[in-house]
Specification:
single chain; mainly beta; 6-stranded mixed sheet; 5-stranded antiparallel sheet; 38 strands; 9% helix; globular
Length: 573
């Protein structure tokens, strides 16, 4: 989940409340979204010298399993504490076809479900799926997706399936301007005021949800019974001396919650909420004033904040957080947090000409004795993918041309293989498998004249499958350990990754995302080594729109993800 959910939601709501162009007018006028020839020509770009620099996944190591997260393939939004969006589970490889109703299982959940977690096994061997949304906490049977229990959030009324189905049916009957108009209406209707999108499931089957001002712990009323009611077991209010709102959640490898705030605080909290420690990131003294200035300028929380993404955690006690203009490594020794370089901590800048910072949660790359990095995208108009050395900078390391820090091991523009591209930014994390790093383009293909800049990303929400708006472009980079160099592996505009966070299966050497073809929603499979499309499934309906949530796989390798109003599992393998 990297997605910086609140940033995306804020953009959707702003545009919904500021209809500055006539969506229903007869004389439609569109401008390009900075994607000229790139969207027309089919392009696959190889490495600069024509050789294949795709590195063996074994050469980088794999993220360690965190023993305090749920013993399943999906315990945290990006799959692991490294935030990699990768899995070794073998996923589907085709064939291409239109799916029928019997090929998938769909369950209504209500609005605002941006992810799910698979539980450890209960005493009887069963598992459940937990999901937190805008009006409820849901618990589903792992095998059937039947709703076993729901916890209604305070002050909320549950959206019923019939109403949600009617909204989807209306969307499916619209296109172009009318579809964009209705998408904005639904964004304001169902996503306004959304909180509590950050979550993780621990080894004891407790779902921790980071609300704006507290951490909430949900459990089974009977821990041995998967069908028992959900109870709110405990709540940890944000300490009075800690500023900001929670913008992420992770777990240390000694079993403590790690929660960053929008004003640059890191909290490490015992899971029973009996104790905590907190520290400010370097430079965070001005974070409160910065955030307040954005509010005073009429910008919504989440769109412009000093920290607006979650954190990555390594097994050695390192925590990686990105602030407005810097990447930070913070050390946790089991009792205390430190930002002191003498303890191994560091702070290093990244480029930020937009002034809004990175949209990516940091992702870890390289484990064990291999080259080790933390990866983000920066704040340039044409964003770069940036690798930082996680540990000591190698002796004699030369500063990468154009990089603002010697700690940067690689910095390459995410131009989707088009050298003429001048602008691209996303709110998604970099997908990492082995030494490969993948980014997608979420900029709509066209933008209506007069459309508010703050709402541009809304066009790839409910409207994202429409050919007028469907984005195009996926790009992979690779670290070459022999050359000690960051290189482009491939880029393609053959495929649209509309709004989902992709997932790579190293087991099947395939990247999965939700895309669009000819106005229909699809599931796309892409060869991780070459970027070539391998298969796609046509689903058609907005019912199966990821709406900015991430792709996941279950224990059997079936693709599963949340949707605008529910959850869907593709039962074909």
């Amino acid at each position: 989940m990297n997605i910086s959910f609140r940033s995306l939601i804020a953009a959707l709501i702003v545009s919904a409340k500021r209809p500055l162009w006539n969506l229903m007018g007869a004389g439609r006028s569109f401008v390009r979204a900075g994607l000229p020839v790139f969207l027309i020509a089919t392009l696959v770009v190889a490495c600069s010298d024509g050789s294949d620099t795709t590195i063996s996944l074994d050469g980088a190591g794999t993220p360690p399993s965190n023993p305090y997260l749920a013993d399943s393939v999906a315990a945290i939004p990006h799959g692991d504490s490294a935030q990699s969006d990768s899995t070794s589970v073998v996923g589907p490889t085709g064939p291409t076809r239109a799916l029928e109703a019997e090929d998938l299982t769909y369950q209504h959940l209500g609005p605002g479900h941006f992810g799910m977690a698979i539980s450890p096994e209960y005493p009887d061997g069963r598992r459940v799926i937990w999901s937190n949304g805008g009006d409820r906490i849901s618990k589903l049977d792992y095998d059937t997706l039947e709703v076993l229990a729901e916890y209604t959030l305070p002050g909320k009324t549950l959206l019923d399936a019939a109403t949600a189905d009617a909204e989807i049916a209306q969307l499916d009957g619209l296109q172009g301007d009318a579809l964009a108009q209705q998408g904005l209406v639904l964004s304001a209707k169902y996503l306004a005021g959304l909180a509590g999108v950050y979550y993780l499931l621990d080894a004891d089957n407790t779902l921790f949800v980071g609300g704006l001002k507290s951490i909430l712990a949900y459990r089974d009323a009977d821990p041995s019974d998967p069908t028992s009611p959900i109870e709110l077991a405990a709540e940890f209010p944000i300490p009075s001396d800690v500023g900001g709102q929670f913008v992420g959640a992770n777990m240390t490898f000694d079993g403590h919650l790690v929660m960053p705030t929008s004003e640059g605080w890191l909290l490490v909290v015992k899971r029973d909420f009996s104790a905590h420690t907190a520290i400010q990131l370097p430079g965070a003294e001005g974070a409160a004033a910065y955030n307040q200035a954005q509010l005073d300028a009429g910008r919504r929380p989440g769109t412009f904040e000093w920290v607006r993404n979650s954190v990555a955690v390594d097994a050695d006690g390192s925590i990686y957080a990105a602030s407005l203009e810097h990447m930070h490594k913070v050390i946790w020794d089991g009792e205390n947090l430190s930002t002191d370089p003498a303890d191994g901590a560091w702070t290093a800048p990244y480029l930020n000409s937009t002034g809004v910072g990175t949209g990516a949660t940091p992702t870890l790359m390289g484990f064990g004795d291999n080259d080790r990095f933390v990866v983000i995208t920066d704040g340039e108009n044409l964003m770069n993918v940036v690798l930082y050395w996680r540990d000591a900078i190698p002796a004699g390391w030369a500063t990468v041309p154009g990089a603002p820090s010697n700690r940067i091991a690689g910095q390459l523009p995410a131009n989707m293989g088009d050298p003429s591209l001048i602008a691209i930014q996303t709110e998604q994390s970099v997908v990492v498998g082995g030494y490969g790093a993948l980014v997608v383009n979420n900029a709509p293909a066209t933008i209506p004249v007069g459309f508010p800049a703050a709402g541009v990303r809304s066009l790839v929400g409910f409207s994202g499958a429409d050919p007028l708006f469907a984005p195009s472009g996926i790009q992979k980079f690779s670290w070459n350990p022999d050359r000690q160099q960051f290189e482009q592996a491939w880029a393609t505009n053959k495929i649209s990754s509309v709004n989902s966070v992709p997932q790579v299966s190293t087991g099947s050497n395939t990247v999965y995302t939700v895309g669009a073809r000819n106005g229909d929603w699809t599931v796309e499979g892409i060869d991780w080594s070459t970027g070539e499309p391998t298969f796609h499934w046509v689903t058609g309906s907005n019912r199966y729109n990821t709406l900015f949530s991430g792709m996941l796989m279950d224990q059997e390798g079936r693709i599963i993800h949340t949707t605008a109003f529910g959850i869907v599992r593709y039962d074909t393998l």
